[in-house]
Each structure stands twice: as C-alpha cells, then as structure tokens.
Specification:
Layout (H helix, E strand, L loop, with lengths): L15 H16 L3 H11 L3 H26 L5 H34 L2 E2 L6 E4 L5 E4 L4 E6 L4 E7 L1 E5 L8 E5 L2 E5 L3 E7 L2 E8 L1 E6 L5 E5 L3 E5 L2 E4 L5 H5 L5 E8 H8 L7 E3 L8 E7 L3 H12 L3 E3 L5 E3 L1
Protein name: FecR domain-containing protein
Pfam families: FecR
GO molecular function, one term: sigma factor antagonist activity
C-alpha cells in the first residue's frame, strides 16, 4: 500500500467540495469496484492530502448509517435491483445530512467574518466608502479592509462584479481564493469556482497574480485569466456573454460537466444538490437556464443523464 507523502505548505483542511467528492466516491465504490473506478479514485486522492482527511471523515460517517439502512432494506421484499437502488439512496441521504452540517459550519464562519453577503437566489449591490460599486452574486460574501494607503477587500466566497472608483494614490486590491487582483479604476468580474479563481475584465486594466506572490499577468478589456494552485494563466478562449449571464438572471452551459453544473446551481439555492453517483459527474450538459428556476434545471438534469432525484428536508436534493 502506497504511503501518502505530505509536503510542507500542503493544506490539510478539506473544503466542502472535497467532502462532497469523498461522499461520491464512497457511493461509487460501494456500487462497483472496477479497475477504471479504482484508477479514478487513486487519481482523485493523489497530490491532495486534504482529500485523505475528507475521505476518512465521510467513511466514518457512512459506516454509522450503513448497517441500519441495510437492515431496513433487507426486510423489504421488492425486486433486488430496486432494493439496491434505494440502498444507494438511503446511504446518500445520510451522507448528505452529514455534508449539510459541514456546509453550515463553513457558512457560519463566513457570516461572522464578512461585511456584506448576498442571500441565496438574490443579488446584492454594495457601495463601498470610496464609491466603488460591487454587485454580489447569490451566496457571495465580501470583507472590506480599507486604509489610507490601500483599499483591500476579500471575496470570501462566490462571485462578484466590481466597478472600481479611480484613485491612483490608493490601489484597489482584491483577495479571492488563491488569487490577488490589483487595480486603480476599472470594472471586471471575479469568480471563485471551487479550486480556481477566474477574473474577466470588461474595462480598464487589471494585474492578476497569486496570493503567495510570484508571476503576475496584465489583463485588459475583453480578456480573462485564472489562478489555480498558485499558477497564474491567461484564458484566451471564453464566452463573455456566459460570464455576465448571472447579472441577467441566467446560467449558460456549453457541454459543461454535471458536477460543474451542480456547483453553479448550488450558488442559487439555500438547500444544496449533491451528486451521489460519481460515475455521472463527467456527463455533459448544455443549455440556458434561469437562476430562479433551479427545480426546472434539476428535472432537465434527470432527463439528460438518467439520474433520479431524492428530495430531503430543507430543499436538499440527492441525484443518484
């Protein structure tokens, strides 16, 4: 058995997405353990120490609910295929309840630290002390730290559009995930998308770098760049209309992976959606949807992928 090597500087704190992915892998490997699944699982674990901790925690939680679920279903005399499907659903539901507790803990931390937040399903506009206008997308959170020398803000979660007031003497600096964005006066979009932070400029000039320092790139109107794992890179091919769609109340997907679509949907819901069967995570979805019609999107996902949905209290949904 291979021993995982942890390097200095590696983050050992799992993210909500890592917990979700761990739960998905547990479900998938319980259903089947083919070599392709095992290879994918090993690849998921590789190079991310925090994923090991997420897996261990979710495994412990799943063992606590597996026996009761199996005992209850063993007494049911329905066909074996249907029994198996509902066994998956029962375990998925229990894991989702555990994930919800983790998500609520993170949400409380953000709520305590943020100066401004946007409620689920709504946009929120904030006028900062310097005159900068920030439009927060659903679920986004912003923290402000202005001084005489600089205007510092942190996008703690989600997505926002910044229309920065010009002031050459006081640079406007945004921390967002692994990224650092520095401007004087411009307007642009910043999105924290799981482990990646994407910046799209509509006007003016932006310097994009990593929080830990190093290389910076210069972005002008009509350009996009991203930071992931400390790597800074320009993104030459993107759809500007899709980037700004949220400000028009829309979500636009072009052959997007199912797990990416679900992550986007979760920005607009108070009760999250979870994909229990990771075998479907790579299924592709295309379409234009309204941000206020997430239940309709769930029905579309069922039709396009063949997955079923299980509704739980609090608006939570399991796709399995």
């Amino acid at each position: 058995m291979a021993i995982t090597q942890f390097k200095e500087g590696d983050s050992l704190e799992p993210t909500t997405e890592m917990y979700e992915e761990a739960a998905g892998w547990i479900m998938r490997l319980r259903e089947s353990a083919e070599e392709a699944d095992l290879e994918g699982f090993r690849g998921w674990l590789a190079g991310q120490p925090a994923r090991h901790f997420a897996l261990a925690e979710m495994e412990a939680l799943s063992e606590g609910v597996r026996a009761p679920a199996a005992a209850e279903l063993a007494a049911d005399r329905r066909r074996s295929a249907l029994r198996r499907r509902w066994s998956v659903a029962a375990l998925a539901a229990s894991l989702v309840l555990a994930l919800t507790g983790i998500a609520q803990r993170e949400a409380l931390t953000v709520a305590l630290l943020a100066d401004d937040t946007a409620p689920a399903g709504q946009q929120h506009r904030v006028r900062l002390a310097d005159g900068t206008l920030v439009t927060l997308n659903s679920g986004a959170a912003l923290d402000e730290r202005f001084s005489r020398a600089r205007r510092d803000v942190t996008l703690m979660r989600g997505e926002a559009f910044f229309d920065v007031a010009k002031n050459k003497a006081r640079p406007f600096v945004i921390g967002a995930g692994d990224a650092r964005v520095t401007v004087v006066g411009t307007h642009f979009n910043v999105k924290i998308d799981r482990e990646q932070t994407v910046v799209t400029v509509e006007g003016g000039i932006v310097r994009l770098g990593a929080q830990r320092g190093g290389k910076e790139i210069r972005l002008t109107a009509g350009q996009q760049g991203f930071v992931e794992g400390g790597r800074v890179q320009a993104q030459p091919n993107f759809d500007a209309l899709a980037v700004s769609a949220w400000r028009r109340g829309q979500m636009v997907f072009y052959t997007a992976r199912l797990d990416e679509v679900v992550a986007e949907l979760n920005r607009y819901r108070s009760g999250h959606i979870y994909v229990a069967n990771r075998a479907y995570a790579g299924e592709t979805i295309s379409g234009v949807f309204g941000t206020k019609d997430t239940d309709d999107v769930i029905r579309t996902l069922e039709k396009q992928t063949g997955l079923r949905s299980l509704d739980l209290p609090g608006g939570m949904v399991v796709l399995y």
